[in-house]
Amino acid sequence: MISEERFTEIQNELRQKIDLTDGFDINGLKTLAGVDLAYWKKGEEEYAVCCIVVIDAATRQVTEKQHFSGKIEVPYMPGFLAFRELPLVMKTAEMLRSDPDIFVFDGNGYLHPRHMGIATHASFHLNKPTLGIAKTYFRVDKSTDYTEPENEPGSFTDIVISGEVYGRALRTHKDVKPVFVSAGNRISLDTACALAMRFTDRESHIPIPTRLADLETHIAREAERAAQESAL
């Protein structure tokens, strides 16, 4: 049933199970998966493609990439993005031949009104540690903004709402905008930020897994749109 009341109930149930401690050894990671989606419209119908790119933690080379597209069945409702995107995320994850140690989402996790952003929600379905790294700030509380970190790589400021840390604004490179890091599940915020820094290279201010997934979504979206048009 599609309703804000039911979605809120589900989020509140899962919220009780969130674990903000590290469920893995950061130095023992072998593979990371970046996850991103891209949308388009065909008439009045909305579609999206999910791309997952897996990289080797040691070499940072791509070991696998998969994508899956489909019609979006859930209308946009603020705070309930996961219900729109999870069906495609899970279909794509099921296509993976490998078993990534951790999933990195282009989006939020604990930085959410009920701490149930896409990164956190997805963890319960993927049964894996997750974190969210967003390029833009999601204002959970209308009265709460973030403070710019110092202009040095690795500098951060906590995003605190009602006395609780929801996430961090993290500067991955000097003279670039910060990214917004939040724990998903089975990971601490400190480790999430450490991974964000460790896997960000000179090519971009966002980490390699989600940067590559983002690039793949644009390629896949154009291919899917072209296929739809040729089928007319």
Q: According to CATH, what is the class?
A: Alpha Beta
Q: End-to-end span in angstroms?
A: 32 Å
Query: Helix count, per DSSP?
Result: 5
Radius of gyration: 17 Å
Q: Report helical residue fraction.
A: 25-40%
Uncertain regions spanning at least 5 consecutive residues? none
CATH architecture: 2-Layer Sandwich
Order of H and E elements: HEEEHEHEEEEHH
Q: Quick one: CATH superfamily?
A: archaeoglobus fulgidus dsm 4304 superfamily
Most strands sheet = 8 strands, mixed
Our estimate of the beta-strand percent is 25-35%
Q: If you consult CATH, what is the topology?
A: archaeoglobus fulgidus dsm 4304 fold
Report the structural category: alpha+beta
Our count of domains comes out at 1
Molecular shape: globular
Overall average pLDDT: 95
For the secondary structure, the number of strands is 8
Strand order within the widest sheet?
3-2-1-4-5-8-7-6
List keywords for this structure.
232 residues, alpha+beta, archaeoglobus fulgidus dsm 4304 fold, 5 helices, 30% helix, 27% strand
Topology:
Layout: H1 4-15, E1 31-42, E2 45-56, E3 62-71, H2 81-95, E4 102-105, H3 118-126, E5 130-134, E6 156-161, E7 164-170, E8 179-185, H4 189-198, H5 208-230
Helix pairs in contact: 2-3
Explain what this protein looks like in three dimensions:
This protein is of the alpha+beta class. It has a single domain, classed as archaeoglobus fulgidus dsm 4304 superfamily (archaeoglobus fulgidus dsm 4304 fold, 2-Layer Sandwich), CATH 3.30.2170.10. Helices cover 30% and strands 27% of the residues. The protein is built from 5 helices and 8 strands; from the N terminus they run H-E-E-E-H-E-H-E-E-E-E-H-H. The chain has helices at residues 4-15, 81-95, 118-126, 189-198, 208-230, and strands at residues 31-42, 45-56, 62-71, 102-105, 130-134, 156-161, 164-170, 179-185. An 8-stranded mixed sheet has the order 3-2-1-4-5-8-7-6, sandwiched between helices. Strand 6 (156-161) and strand 7 form a beta hairpin. Helix 2 crosses helix 3 (118-126). The longest helix has 23 residues, at 208-230. It is globular, with a radius of gyration of 17 Å. The two termini are 32 Å apart. The model has no long low-confidence stretch (mean pLDDT 95).
